[in-house]
């Protein structure tokens, strides 16, 4: 079964963009996943083909209309989850990416301007997703981020099958730091243990560094990791 991505956007020419290159691009050409875009404007009904209108209650900018967006969503209705890119959504995490990648695919709605008419989400059972606590000018970059994260997990896409397992976040920790040749560069050396050939010692060092770096760089992740380890119930919104 091929993973199918459908992107609803005002800028279909932005796809596949970066996903046409490297691992994702090769996988696309090998039909390991499929990409389709839908022009939201094709579902406008007035003679100006408008997709947006001024915000109810006043304020700057324009809001994407629920009726036009719903018609676009309905045109692709199937068994795949429908996600909308919005900074008001639930932050995207590796566990959610894994779930999506394990399914039949995804439909992604890309916002522009001030975003979507809120009524759309409940009316169509749309999952609201954020890619981080900053504001983009449109959802297209978010959709590319989501798809890149999913596609690299599809069977046969990543060369060494194991390289996804130890990655940052997969264990709830950041990955340990990596090094490669030359052994000495600008007077800096690779940690001695990594050149020892002692695999048990290396594994122990890597785990210790993963813990240390997670604790100092990402206290939020560390707190959650420790909570899971000692069996403390997760706070709401965690998973
Ligand atoms: N006024 C909105 C932001 C609109 S930005 C607000 O403050 O919530 C325009 C579009 O860019 C959004 O509709 C969304 O599709 C996309 N976008 C911006 N930031 C995003 C983020 N962090 N995650 C996902 N999508 C984002």
UniProtKB/TrEMBL annotation:
<dbReference type="InterPro" id="IPR016009">
    <property type="entry name" value="tRNA_MeTrfase_TRMD/TRM10"/>
</dbReference>
<keyword id="KW-0949">S-adenosyl-L-methionine</keyword>
<keyword id="KW-0489">Methyltransferase</keyword>
<dbReference type="GO" id="GO:0002939">
    <property type="term" value="P:tRNA N1-guanine methylation"/>
</dbReference>
<dbReference type="InterPro" id="IPR002649">
    <property type="entry name" value="tRNA_m1G_MeTrfase_TrmD"/>
</dbReference>
<keyword id="KW-0819">tRNA processing</keyword>
<dbReference type="Pfam" id="PF01746">
    <property type="entry name" value="tRNA_m1G_MT"/>
</dbReference>
<keyword id="KW-0963">Cytoplasm</keyword>
<dbReference type="GO" id="GO:0052906">
    <property type="term" value="F:tRNA (guanine(37)-N1)-methyltransferase activity"/>
</dbReference>
<comment type="similarity">
    <text>Belongs to the RNA methyltransferase TrmD family.</text>
</comment>
<keyword id="KW-0808">Transferase</keyword>
<feature type="binding site">
    <location>
        <begin position="131"/>
        <end position="136"/>
    </location>
    <ligand>
        <name>S-adenosyl-L-methionine</name>
    </ligand>
</feature>
<dbReference type="InterPro" id="IPR029028">
    <property type="entry name" value="Alpha/beta_knot_MTases"/>
</dbReference>
<comment type="function">
    <text>Specifically methylates guanosine-37 in various tRNAs.</text>
</comment>
<dbReference type="InterPro" id="IPR029026">
    <property type="entry name" value="tRNA_m1G_MTases_N"/>
</dbReference>
<feature type="binding site">
    <location>
        <position position="111"/>
    </location>
    <ligand>
        <name>S-adenosyl-L-methionine</name>
    </ligand>
</feature>
<dbReference type="GO" id="GO:0005829">
    <property type="term" value="C:cytosol"/>
</dbReference>
<dbReference type="InterPro" id="IPR023148">
    <property type="entry name" value="tRNA_m1G_MeTrfase_C_sf"/>
</dbReference>
<feature type="domain" description="tRNA methyltransferase TRMD/TRM10-type">
    <location>
        <begin position="4"/>
        <end position="223"/>
    </location>
</feature>
<protein>
    <recommendedName>
        <fullName>tRNA (guanine-N(1)-)-methyltransferase</fullName>
        <ecNumber>2.1.1.228</ecNumber>
    </recommendedName>
</protein>
<comment type="subunit">
    <text>Homodimer.</text>
</comment>
């Amino acid at each position: 079964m091929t993973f199918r991505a459908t992107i609803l956007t005002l800028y279909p020419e932005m796809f596949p963009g970066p996903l046409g290159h490297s691992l994702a691009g090769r996988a696309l050409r090998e039909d390991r996943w499929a990409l389709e875009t839908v022009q939201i404007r094709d579902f406008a009904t007035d003679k100006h083909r408008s997709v947006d209108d001024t915000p109810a209650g006043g304020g700057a900018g324009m809001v994407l209309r629920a009726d036009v967006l719903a018609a676009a969503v309905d045109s692709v209705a199937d068994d795949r989850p429908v996600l909308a890119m919005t900074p008001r959504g639930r932050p995207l995490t590796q566990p959610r990416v894994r779930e999506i990648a394990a399914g039949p695919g995804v439909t992604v709605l890309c916002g522009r301007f001030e975003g979507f008419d809120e009524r759309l989400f409940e009316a169509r059972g749309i999952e609201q997703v954020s890619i981080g606590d900053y504001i983009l000018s449109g959802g297209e970059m978010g959709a590319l981020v989501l798809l890149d994260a999913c596609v690299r997990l599809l069977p046969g896409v990543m060369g060494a099958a194991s390289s996804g397992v130890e990655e940052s976040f997969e264990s709830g920790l950041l990955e340990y730091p990596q090094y490669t040749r030359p052994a000495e560069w600008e007077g800096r050396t690779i940690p001695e243990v990594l050149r020892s050939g002692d695999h048990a010692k290396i594994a122990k060092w890597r785990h210790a560094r993963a813990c240390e770096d997670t604790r100092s760089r990402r206290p939020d992740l560390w707190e959650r990791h420790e909570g899971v380890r000692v069996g403390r119930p997760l706070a709401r919104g965690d998973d």
